[in-house]
Amino acid sequence: MINRLKRFIHILENSRISFQGFMITLFCIIFLRNFLETFSDIDNFLTPVSSLANFIHYPIFYICLLLALIIILFWLTREKIIRVTKIILFFFPIVLLAPILDLLLSGGEGYNISYLFGDLPFLFHKFITLSWGYTGRGITPGIQIELIIVFFLVGCYLFLKTGKVISIIVGLIALYIVLFVLGSMPSIMTFIWNLIGSIKGTEELFSAEVVLNHFYSFNHKIILVFFPILLVELGLWYWYYNRQKFLVILKNIRGLRVFHYLCMLGIGMFLGYKFMYPDNFWDSPFPVLILFTSAYSVALAWWWAVGINDFHDLEGDKISNPSRPLVTRTLHSDEYRKVNLIFLVLGLVGAIVIRYQFFVTILITSGLSYIYSAPPFRLKRVPFLATFIIALCSAIVCLAGYILFSNNYSFYGFPPRILFTILVAFTLAFNVIDIKDLQGDRATGTVTLPTLLGEKKGKRVIGILVLLSYFSVPVILKSLVLIPFALFFGIVTYIFINKKHMRETPIFVVYFLFLGVTLYFIYPQI
Predict the structure, then answer these.
(1) What is the DSSP string of 279-290?
(2) Which domains does the chain have, with CATH numbers?
(3) In DSSP terms, which residues pair with 214 in a beta bridge?
(4) Which tens digit of pLDDT belongs to each residue from 269-327?
(5) Which of 12, 104, 408, 470 would disulfide-bridge 486, Cβ 3.0–4.6 Å?
(6) Is residue 70 a contact partner of residue 26, using CB atoms and an 8 Å limit?
(7) Which pLDDT score is estimated for 197?
(8) CA-CA distance, 167 to 343, in Å (whole number)?
């Protein structure tokens, strides 16, 4: 009997499931569970939950739960994590039992399904009593039966894989802790927040309210809590899946350029905070979570743009950037596309949770990144228009940061001079990124200033353009005090550009220093 079960598990673990098939199956089960709760949950009786709950909140909750379970089983069995993931998917339909059982046990009336809301003594009591018993809200009888089945199956899997009682005990305890923490997340977050001195009840902290001049519902707030957890779990999963590939992707994120866009986002936040200071900024953890999620949304959208560029610059990268993932074949194109798609989806999910207007800005910058790198337009082949697209993306990200604090959901009040400065300065300066790709661009027929003018003359012209970009800042902003700084940093950058072996890192460092100086001096003028 045991051997038959092992063979059955082995067949499931080694079954061929495409990425598309896996994701479609996973979300189909989640959406079906949500639909069944329409009939079994008193709060939503015969009424589907909101789109935010149905398409983002609940899927993120279940994916966080599944990833945590997968990682626990991986740690204890040391089975390949992709095999553990397949097993979890095959048994995931068990989640459909709870709403069906609730309807049967309640005679068709349903129960009130919710997170566990309460103070620390309440949570401690629930924890040591295994959350048993339905008290009119929380973990329903159907969910309790469902969890018993889940614990039994997890115990069986651990027994078949390890044969060790200690592994079973540790696995079940770890699973219970994960389930309890996720199911009590609003109360746990309230307890943690209250440690810093703000005394609020869970329902008060997670109630719908205006945060950073924008309305946030319970679903918004709980997603903001789960989003960083999801990112960490996904990162761990991929690390355990293939450490080498994880490190290659991490190395390929172009950290200095990511930091550039985060600086643009930060400038927008800085301006918005100064002009529309929200009275409730420190009343809850959600403003910080909003800013964190917005930063990750921008970074994820940029990493997607990096992937698009890598796909369409493959031939040139073989010459100019031989360490790129597709060139070294550390990542096959199909797998890279999957990772890249996940970056885009996560970036857009984080953006839509923050607010619709922020989502629009991230969507537009993602679209511009595609037009910049990919056919049919592939605008990176057109000098100055290519750098204008980069400057435009930088300006839009800055506006995205500003809109986080906007009380009328618009860009109204954003200083036009700063917007114009970003467009002009970066259109001139970002020609510098074409220098290191000279040989690859020349081989693929990509038109840039270095390929048109040659390396030596191209460096000089680009150095002059960068010097002009530095001078454009004090001119457009009408800040005379910045002129000597522009001259100094511009000359230093010109020297770095015209070295025999130019490196981008010192150039970006000088730019970031000048950006900090500029913010320091223009702050009193804003």
Answers:
(1) TTTTSSSHHHHH
(2) 2-207 (no CATH), 254-454 (1.10.357.140)
(3) 211
(4) 999 888 887 777 778 899 999 999 999 999 999 999 999 999 999 999 999 899 899 99
(5) 470
(6) no
(7) 63
(8) 35
Alpha carbons 35 and 99: distance in angstroms, whole number: 9
Q: Buried b / exposed e across 404-417, counting CB within 10 Å, b at 16+?
A: bbbeeeebeebeee
For 157, the token pair is: 């899997």
How far are the Cα atoms of 66, 188, 225 from residue 182, in angstroms, in the given order? Answer: 11, 9, 10
Residues 6+ apart with CB under 8 A from 279: none
Handedness of CA 396, 398, 403, 409 (dihedral sign): negative
Distances from the Cα of 69 to the Cα of 142, 392, 467, angstroms: 20, 43, 55
Partners of 41 in beta bridges: 111
Yes or no: say if 279 and 311 are a contact pair by the CB < 8 Å rule: no
Cα dihedral 313, 317, 321, 327 in deg (nearest 10):
110
Q: 462-491, pLDDT tens digit by residue? A: 999 999 999 999 999 999 999 999 999 999
Q: How many CB atoms lie within 10 A of CB 159?
A: 16
Tell me if the bond preceding 506 is cis, omega within 30° of 0. Answer: no
Mean pLDDT of 346-358: 95
Nearest to 384 by CA among 420, 446, 432, 431: 431
Q: What are phi and psi of 210, to 5 degrees?
A: -90, 125
